Amino acid sequence: xxxxxxxxxxxxxxxxxxxxxxxxxxxxxxxxxxxxxxxxxxxxxxxxxxxxxxxxxxxxxxxxxxxxxxxxxxxxxxxxxxxxxxxxxxxxxxxxxxxxxxxxxxxxxxxxxxxxxxxxxxxxxxxxxxxxxxxxxxxxxxxxxxxxxxxxxxxxxxxxxxxxxxxxxxxxxxxxxxxxxxxxxxxxxxxxxxxxxxxxxxxxxxxxxxxxxxxxxxxxxxxxxxxxxxxxxxxxxxxxxxxxxxxxxxxxxxxxxxxxxxxxxxxxxxxxxxxxxxxxxxxxxxxxxxxxxxxxxxxxxxxxxx
Length: 306
Ligand SMILES: [Zn+2]
Known about the structure:
Blueprint: H1 29-42, E1 47-51, H2 77-82, H3 84-102, H4 108-118, E2 122-127, H5 133-137, E3 142-144, E4 147-154, E5 160-162, H6 163-173, H7 177-181, E6 213-217, H8 226-238, E7 241-245, H9 252-263, E8 268-271, E9 284-286, H10 290-300
Parallel strand pairs: 1-2, 1-7, 2-3, 7-8, 8-9
Antiparallel strand pairs: 4-5, 4-6
Helix pairs in contact: 1-10, 4-10
The structure holds zinc ion.
C-alpha cells in the first residue's frame, strides 16, 4: 500500500499539520548524505522504532535533556510517596501542566512514523514520551514505555482514572487556582509546569478507596512494568533493525533496547540532535532535525517485498 498521509485527516498531503503550525527546516548536505546511507542500510528490513523527547520539541514540548534546556530535577517516586509537601507541589504543577500536553499537536515526525507503520515497515513503536502524540498522529502499535500523561492510578486499589476526571475533582478542591496560574511559563515533557505557589494546593484522594493517586507514568526511581518491557523486547526481536529518534538514551529504560539490538547484530540508526549514550553501539548516527529526518526517511524507504 502506498504512503497516504491524507488517510489521517490531521495532516495534509505533505505530512505537515494542516493548521500550518509546524514547518520543516531544510536538511544540510551532510545530514542528507547520512540519511541516504540509512535508506540503503534499512531497505528491506522491518524496523522497531524507539522515540524520545527530541521528537516532541517540534510540537512545542521542551526536551529537558536537550542542549538548551534549563536544568531540572524531576521528582523521584520515593519523594512523591514519602513527602506530602512535595506531593502537593507535584500535583499543583501537574494540574497546570497536563493541559499543555493535551493541547499539543503531533508534528511531521510523528506523522512520518505513522506512515511507516501504515506501510507495514515497522514492527512497532516504543516511546519514552508520555504525551501520546504518536497515537494522536495515527500510530497503532505503540508501547508507552513511561506511561501516559492522561491517566492516573490509585497506588492503593490500582483503579485507573482518566486525567480529565481527576482534573474536575482538583478544580472543585482548588477553585480559582488554574486561573491564577494559567500563564505558567515552561512546561516539561512530564507535564510539570513551572509553578511555585503550591503550598495551599489540595490533593484529591482516590474516589474509590480514598488512597493515594499518582499520575500513571514511570518516575525516576521507579521501574517500567515488566510486561511492558517484555513486549518492547519482542518488538525489537521481530525487527531487522532498530531506529532511534529524538532520544539521548540517558536512562537505561531506553538504552537497553539499543544494547539488545546491537548484541543481536542488528543495525542501529540513531537520529538525534547531539550525542547520545548509545553512540558507541550505533551503526549510523544522524545529528540533525528529528522531524525533518524522519520525513526524509519515510519518503524514501522502499516497500517490503513480501
Ligand atoms: Zn483507590
